[in-house]
Amino acid sequence: MELLNKHVSIRNFSDKVVDPDLLKSIIYSGTRASTTGNMQLYSVIITKDSKRKEKLLPLHFNQPVAKNAPVLLTFVADFNRFSKWCLFNEAQPGYNNLISFTNALIDTSLAAQNVCVAAENNGLGICYLGTTAYNAKEHIELLELPQLTFPVTTVALGYPEERPELTDRIPLKGIIHDEVYKDYDKAQIDELYAFKESLESSNKFVAENNKQTLAQVFTDVRYKKDDNEFFSEKMMNTLRDQEFFV
Amino acid sequence: MELLNKHVSIRNFSDKVVDPDLLKSIIYSGTRASTTGNMQLYSVIITKDSKRKEKLLPLHFNQPVAKNAPVLLTFVADFNRFSKWCLFNEAQPGYNNLISFTNALIDTSLAAQNVCVAAENNGLGICYLGTTAYNAKEHIELLELPQLTFPVTTVALGYPEERPELTDRIPLKGIIHDEVYKDYDKAQIDELYAFKESLESSNKFVAENNKQTLAQVFTDVRYKKDDNEFFSEKMMNTLRDQEFFV
Question: Which ranges carry the Nitroreductase domain (chains A, B) (predicted)?
Fold first, then answer.
C-alpha cells in the first residue's frame, strides 16, 4: 500500500494553516480504529497556541519539530471518561490497574496511527514525539489531565516543507517468525543490521560520538541505561499519582 | 478516509487461502510505521497451523474467531533482537525497564495498526484479539518467546464472509479537547453515551445480564474489577519473568 509504504517523518512544516474541519475529520478516522470492548480508552488534546507549544518544547527535549509544527496532538490513554460514565450509572469501575492501563495504551496507539495515516492521505506530514511518556508528569500539569489518564505519545502535524528519504528498516525476515519465535544468532544479527551499519549517516553518528560501533551510539548516547531507569521510575510514580496503580 | 472510516471487525472468514506473499507485503507495510529511534521494537508470529490454533483458542477465552481465522498474527513487543545486536557489538543494552517496555508496546501497536489498514486495503478482514496480554504467559510458552519479549495483541485475518454494520462511537467532541483537558460532568456524560445506551443491542445486553444499566454490564460482567486485578498481577509477574522488570 503506497501511502503506508512511503511514510517518512516530517520535521519542517510550511505556514499553511491546517483547516479545523480537516483536523476533526482525521481525528474521526482515528476513532474508527479498533478499540477494546468499544470503550474508546483515549482522548486527544489539540495544541495550537504558540505559548503552550513553547512550554511543551522542553518536555519534548527541545526537538525543534515540537515548536515548528502548527498542530500538536497529544494522545492520552483515558479511563477517566469511561469510569465517570460508570459512576454516573450505578456501576463501580475497577480500572486502576496494569491490564486496564495496557488496554488504554494499545487503544490510544491504534487511534494515533489511524490519525497519522488519515493525515498523510490528506497531504499532511506527521512526526511522532516519543518523548511524551518520558515527561508525562509535566504534560499532565500543562494539559490539565485528570486522574486515570496518561499522555502516551504526541503527533506533530502540518503541511510538509521537506521530502526526506525513506528511512532504513531491517529485512522483513528479521521481523517475521513462522509458528514459533526463532531466536537470533550472531550471524543472523550481523546480516539483519548490516545495511543499517553501512549507511553514511550511521558512520557519521559513530564518528561524531567517538564510538566503536553503531550499537554503542544507542546504548551510550541515545537510549542509555541510566536514563531509561530514571524515566522508568518517574513514569511509575506518575502512574501511581494518576491512580492507575494503587 | 473511506478505508479507515468503514472499518468493521470480521469474525467469520471464507476458506480462501491468504497468499503468503500478500501476507508478507502487508506485514512489510506494518514495518513502515513510525518506530522509536528506528529500533523496530516488535516481532510478528504467524500462526497458520490448525493444531497450534487449537492450543491458542483457550488463551483467547475461546472466542471462535481465534480458530476460524486462517491466519493469526501475534504482535510481540521485542527488545530481545535489539539487545542481542547490542551485545554482539560491544554495547551494553539497558532496556529491562518500564519506559523501554512502553516504547516497545507503542511501536508494536503502531505496526499492528498499519498491518490492519494494509490488510483491509487488500480485501482482507481483521479482528483484534485483546486477550493476548491477559494470557501472555501461556503465549510465551506456546510461541517460544524469549526474555525481553512480550505478546501485546493478536490480529485474526482472512477473507470476510460477513459484512457487519459499522459499530457505534461516542460523538467526536467527547474525544477532542482544545488546548487543555475539559473534564466531563453528568450532563455531558449522559449526552456522549446516550446513543450507545439507546441501541437495541445494548438493551439486550442489559436485559440478558439482569442489570439496571449498560455500564453495569461492563463493570459486573465484561471487564470486572476482580478479573482486572487478577490479570494485572499475572501480567506484572510475566513482565518480571521476561526480565522487562528486574
Answer: 7-159
